[in-house]
Amino acid sequence: MKFYIETYGCQMNISDSELISSILSKDQFIHTTKLNEADVIIFNTCSVRKHAEDRVIGRIAQEISRKRYNPNLKIGVIGCMAQRLGEKLHNINGKIDFVVGVDQYKKIPELIHNSVEKDEFLSNTIVDHSEIYHELYPTHSGKYNAFVTIMRGCNNFCTYCIVPYTRGRERSRSIEDILREVENVGNIGFKDVTLLGQNVNSYNFNNKNFPELLEQINEIDSIKRIRFVTSHPKDLSDDLIKVMADSEKVCEHIHLPLQSGDNDVLKRMKRGYTIEHYLEIVKKLRENMPEIAITTDIIAGFPGETDNQFQKTYDVMKKIKYDYAFTFKYSPREGTKAADFTNQIQEDIRLKRLQKLIKLQESITLAKYQDQIGKTKEIYVEKISKKSDKEVAGKSRDFKITVFKGSKNLIGKFVKVKITDAVGWTLKGESIQEIGDRR
Ligand code: 5AD
Ligand code: SF4
Fold first, then answer.
1. 164 CA: nearest ligand 2 atom
2. Do residues 412 and 332 share a domain?
3. Cβ–Cβ < 8 Å for 81, 46
4. Residues 262, 384 within the same domain
5. Residue 439 has pLDDT above 60, yes or no
6. Which of 166, 199, 231 has most ligand 2 atoms within 8 Å of its beta carbon, as the pocket-test mutant?
7. 16 and 104 co-located in one domain
8. Secondary structure in 3-state letters for 118-167
């Protein structure tokens, strides 16, 4: 049987889809990237905002129409929305064949087989706070960058966030299992790994913490670049900053969600830090790594956010000058604390605030990219440029897409490039030295 997976949401979901591909492939299922070839279509879903759920419900309805000319087609829903809604999804769309929650992915092959045999709706969303998918290694879908999950779940219960309810309690994967996976991906040619967790700074396995894990991964020869997401400002230690600065392979890039620039809002979000603390971390990061790129997540229109409080977020963004900011309009999620707050902000105000943030960040990002002109950057070449077959494209250590003249034999190699121009959010440059594959 052939399976197709469509993935929504964060990198953790991408990584989970890779894990499921690996589980299914071991059971004689064959992965396809063509919808019309699929015997099973799986939607890996996200619940973080209502919009994300609505979109995927629309997509499921679209693909279910295929059942008319392919009656044996099975459609499954997995991921956060599957965990959150479980069997209720069958009421939303009666043609869904199976629903599997985030701790039951090992059961997917069995569920598909049963669904084929019995031709009835099946669901398994049993919560297992200990499931870490030990010794199961994903089929990495990228070519150059591999996602490696180091922990699952979250204990923070930020008042707006559904993740602790859908993904359960925080648990860390063993260091040995992580190192084995990173070595494996290095051996098959990946040189760039991104470590994943809802809150990587609270990684802890047998008293080994995240900076110690990073140091060990830094020792793996075949790996040349290390990134990680997501960092929580309340748990980001001086040790981590030191290890980032001292470890050759840890890239100068951090994603550090701010969410709001106002202390009262942060408190009501239950974020566990103040704006002063956040600014202090940014200062230390920049002192230790002057070239570091900092990206963030911001929510506009959290319940009770006044004009003045919103303005503080705006001002902090202006002050910090993020390389990029993912900005969101607050979306009430049933079951979270903030959804029950009585001071919800009107939709049109949330939207206006969001638009203001987007506009501000666009101008900051453009200026940041302009600032790169004249600098020399190490680019890991990933592909031929979309615009011209005489140019190649890759990423700098600080995660900026860079295009320069070159042929396909540079793909997978590291090249020193002098930045000559910034066109929107793409850097242009000239190759000055091929560093090779740095092996
Ligand atoms: N509404 C809007 N944005 C949200 N996020 C999480 N929950 C919500 C919500 N209910 C955002 C946060 C988080 C990012 C992944 O999604 O900014 O960091
Ligand atoms: Fe959600 Fe907060 Fe956990 Fe991030 S740290 S996943 S925002 S509860």
1. 8
2. no
3. yes
4. no
5. no
6. 199
7. yes
8. HCCCEEECCCCCCCCCCCCCCCCCCCCEEEEECEECCCCCCCCCCHHHHH
Provide the strand spans (E) within 131-288: 145-149, 151-152, 171-172, 192-196, 204-205, 208-209, 225-229, 253-255
From the CB of 299, is ligand 1 less than 6 Å away? yes
pLDDT in tens, 117-136: 998 999 999 999 999 999 99
Q: β-strands 122-124, 171-172: how paired?
A: unpaired
Residue for token digits 């004249």? Answer: 374
Residue in 156, 232, 234, 256 to alter for ligand 2 test, most ligand atoms within 8 A of Cβ: 156
% pLDDT > 70, the chain: 100
48 Cβ closer than 6 Å to some ligand 1 atom = yes
C-alpha to C-alpha distances, 20 to 114, 155, 409, nearest whole angstrom:
17, 24, 33
Average pLDDT, the chain: 96
pLDDT band at 311, cuts 50/70/90? very high
332-380: per-residue pLDDT in tens? 999 999 999 999 999 999 999 999 999 999 999 999 999 999 999 999 9
Distance from the CA of 331 to the center of ligand 1, in angstroms? 8
- Average pLDDT of the segment spanning 270-276: 98
**Ligand 2 centroid, distance to 103 Cα (angstroms):** 18
Q: Is the CB of 257 under 6 A from ligand 1?
A: yes
Question: Is the CB of 198 inside a 6 Å radius of any atom of ligand 2?
Answer: yes
- Which CATH number characterizes residue 413's domain? 2.40.50.140
How far lies 151's CA from each of 202, 254, 425, in Å?
9, 18, 32
Q: Do 182 and 99 share a domain, yes or no?
A: no
Q: What angle do CA 77, 81, 84 make, to 5 degrees?
A: 120
* Distance from the alpha carbon of residue 278 to the mean position of ligand 2, in angstroms: 16
